Amino acid sequence: MKKMASLALITSLLFLFVLSGCGSDNSKTTGATDERTKKDQGMKLVNEGKLTFAMSGLLKPLNYKEKNKLVGFDVEIGHEIAKRIGLESNPVTNPWETILQGLKGKKYDAIIGSMTATEERAKQVDFSDPYYISGAQIFVADTNETLKSRADLKGKRIGVVQSSTYKQDAEQYTKDIKSYPSDVYALQDLAPGRVDAVITDKIVGINAMKESNLKIKTVDEVLKKENIAVAVNKDNPELLKEINKAIQSMIEDGTYEKISNKWFGVNLLEK
User: Fold this and answer.
1) Are the CB atoms for 245 and 84 separated by under 8 Å?
2) Strands 50-55 and 110-116
3) E strand or H helix at 257, and its extent?
4) What fold is seen in the domain 43-133+227-264?
5) Are 55 and 63 in contact (CB under 8 A)?
6) Mean pLDDT of all residues in the chain?
């Protein structure tokens, strides 16, 4: 009888121990879920568990559609940001002319679509730290060793795109300005020496170097720096905080440079 009583007692204790263990695991799981939910609610997401971010989808190679799927530098940056925050990536398109209104109307959580962080736009939305830097850039033939800074442009022949603001930039250095219907045509004229330099958008020129295999190079820093950043609503500071943390960690561990080199062959955050 004593043996049976002892066995019964041991069995009861084991049963209680198992129940206690199960309760502890459930508590941990529930706690993690509650923490995730709390974080999601703090970030005020349009779709729970997802980072929904918008772009025009018409700006190759930054963001565009390939086989009905959004791809490009902006898209890959967005995927990486979402992953580091712990959210599912959900890129969407919206016409550029109404993209800010769509954000303010809570159609999506953020804009990751090569938007320049301007003072005027900052009145409506908040911007993250820049995820790339662009602006008016001087390009010359890669064999040109005489033009090494913007000061060397004085009196030289400069190519610009027709009806662009780059003409005003060029006028600060010379009166000899040649207009072109496209950036690529202007950049192609550098190697044969039909123009000494071209002023155009930094990203446009860098992409032409990679895609068209043009033998050109940049000179000096950008003439007018443009910080390209993620836009979020002003009532969503927690999301902005998480996005900034994600961008910083991407830069620190080298992931950003790998993505940038994949699409452009250079680090777009380097001046």
Assistant:
1) yes
2) parallel
3) helix 255-264
4) D-Maltodextrin-Binding Protein; domain 2 (3.40.190)
5) yes
6) 88
